[in-house]
Amino acid sequence: MTRESFAGIRQLRPSRKLLPEHARGHNRSLVLQTLYRASGKSRADLARDTGLTRVTISDLIAELMLEGLVIELGQREGEARPGKPATLLDLKRDAFQIVGIDLSAFEIFRGALLSVDGEVLHSAEIPLAGSTGADATAKVFALAEELVAAATSPVLGIGVGSPGVVALDGTVLGAPNLGWRHEPLQTALSAHFDLPAVVANDANAAVLAEHSFGGSEGDLMLVKVGHGVGAGLLLGGSLLHGSRFAAGELGHVVVGTHGGPLCVCGKHGCLETWLATPRLDAALAEARSSGTPTEPILTEAGRHLGIALAPVIAALNLPEIVLSGPRELLDGALTDAAVDTLRNRTMAEIHGELSVRMTTLGEDIVVRGAAAMVLSKQLGVS
Amino acid sequence: MTRESFAGIRQLRPSRKLLPEHARGHNRSLVLQTLYRASGKSRADLARDTGLTRVTISDLIAELMLEGLVIELGQREGEARPGKPATLLDLKRDAFQIVGIDLSAFEIFRGALLSVDGEVLHSAEIPLAGSTGADATAKVFALAEELVAAATSPVLGIGVGSPGVVALDGTVLGAPNLGWRHEPLQTALSAHFDLPAVVANDANAAVLAEHSFGGSEGDLMLVKVGHGVGAGLLLGGSLLHGSRFAAGELGHVVVGTHGGPLCVCGKHGCLETWLATPRLDAALAEARSSGTPTEPILTEAGRHLGIALAPVIAALNLPEIVLSGPRELLDGALTDAAVDTLRNRTMAEIHGELSVRMTTLGEDIVVRGAAAMVLSKQLGVS
DNA sequence: TTTGTTAGTACACCTTACGAACAAACCCTA
DNA sequence: TAGGGTTTGTTCGTAAGGTGTACTAACAAA
Fold first, then answer.
1. pLDDT tens-digit profile of A101-119?
2. Which of B1, B173, B201, B258 to mutate to test the interface with A (most CBs of A within 10 A)?
3. Distance, angstroms, CA B18 to C1' D28?
4. What is the per-residue pLDDT across B51-76, written as a single tens digit (0 to 9) for each?
5. φ/ψ of residue B75, rounded to 5
6. Domains of chain B by range and CATH?
7. Calpha distance B122→B135 (Å, rounded)
């Protein structure tokens, strides 16, 4: 159990010099962010919101208008106030569109063209048909090609949520289902389309979507249940990657002490054996055919989820858990049992303020998260 | 389970304006940090290490020398090299001393005067004698007074590691054993001594000590076993506080599904019931008096620790766990069982690179962590 | 018409970091 | 011993970023 035993990539120490131009970029993003969240603000409003002076705001806005990112909407109307009427501003929200791609669905790659606000403008998908390795990569490029071609405005960038372990530079270090090992997807996409690209883990993309478009605060865990089980963690507003970029890989944690079903990984009682959709569907089908009630199966699954999450929630003091996956499986007895289990296994100070719920973003959560990654990288907006 | 159900303090959104002077402060800390880790560097060396120019480094060094924080050691000798000989620099390590205080021990407050390098120069302690509330606060002040008086150089600040939940501003929101509720210790200490003060949770202080003085990297969990069980989490080099500053409160997570011993909190099978030292000591004493072997008790404790930690380690992709507490209890069968359990309950990709060990800092870990907090706050050094 | 308020801009100034150029101090070589 | 090369650290001037002050523009209320 030494740390040299794994030939992974070491994260770089981020502490570097800070120049005035970095401050400028930060303040620029601050202005964009403020406008992104609430349009129809004046320069003076922005000054009050950001703490920068009106002069600086004017300077930044002039720069952003020159780049075509911000437009003037005209003068504020309605309320009669003394003083010079304010000139309202907004992001030019149709200046760009974003390509978002989800590689985490079963046997299909899904993609969408999205607005800057994260609305899906156009969807596309391509069946995987068992492709792995270079074939799978080719399908990603084909899907991206179609979506880039469908854009009616310049494309701000291409975001991808991929299963497996993804490094900070967008290299898929390992994705067994797709047969990828050390696949430099982000670099390749960026070079091929001559566009900015971001590749990240699917659950990480999903948690960003929930934060950006689902109204969640900055401390949040998103548990994604599908063919496997994974999670994305947002702590203090920023993604947790983990020392080897494998944070959130909860599927193969053993739950309970009774043994449990055999998992593909060779262990017994992994969280996936209780929660992954193929297992759950099979158990439910069998119950239905034999006439036994189905609810205990969902309750048991939820209970195991709760057992696995309790130490994580306590250790991180997490206020919010969001579930993503088939609503008919997750939303109901399963969630109820998870909540109940969490209540029984954590202090009141922890579970008292805990919110556990389904995502409201549905199946688009990963493509929208991919778009959020592009927004964050290109504009500093989230 | 709504988030409004707890009348806690809400963390502020950190996104604020960034001014050139903030950049200056960052670069200043960068220089201090570089010198702190390796003395005997020249201005040109620092320029190479930080990426700043020699001009900027000279400017920053001049400022730091004016403040008495940095001194010139004279010219580099030894190796014969071409060029003008370098003037070596160092932190003036005896310019300041630091007061560190540990409120987490049983029935005693421990404190120390420390050097900038984190060495204990002088120790002091004061028995708690059952004091709580204002009496306990007074004992903290008395201990601080003694240590400040013992200083032979100006005191850089006072650091305190306190049990319980501590807000970012150093207010102890709740510490049952000391009878504190919303105790503004940091503000009070700072005002009374006219010195900078930092108050944080004891386990958080400990994890910072392990990082600063124990040689750990920036991803680390420190589990502190004493009268209770708590943890400090360092993720990506920065402390995790949690949405209500209760991160690391692992003691009252239920472990196992068999019920287990009754805990003071009313639940059965909390981690503390397996691991806290009073329980362990009692169980061991009983085993010894009845002639039964003691090792199974330690093994069982370690197993429960492993069960509780497995989901956390997997979710965070943590590479390192450090244990702090009585070595005779933790170091041996207990740790071995924990490691074994973790190996059986997580993927090889997770536990393969995991290191689990005792701290090397012993009983001084919290006071040294408190000193590290002062260093970090006042000099930006860690 | 006067007064007071708000929005946005012009201008001078401060801070910060940089690049160019240079002197000092050392090595090595002819 | 003289000179070329190298490294260190400083001086000088410049560019970028942000602020404070003072100004104009535009409005409401009296």
1. 999 999 999 999 999 999 9
2. B1
3. 37
4. 889 999 999 999 899 888 999 988 87
5. -80, 150
6. 20-91 (1.10.10.10), 97-208+365-379 (3.30.420.40), 215-359 (3.30.420.40)
7. 24
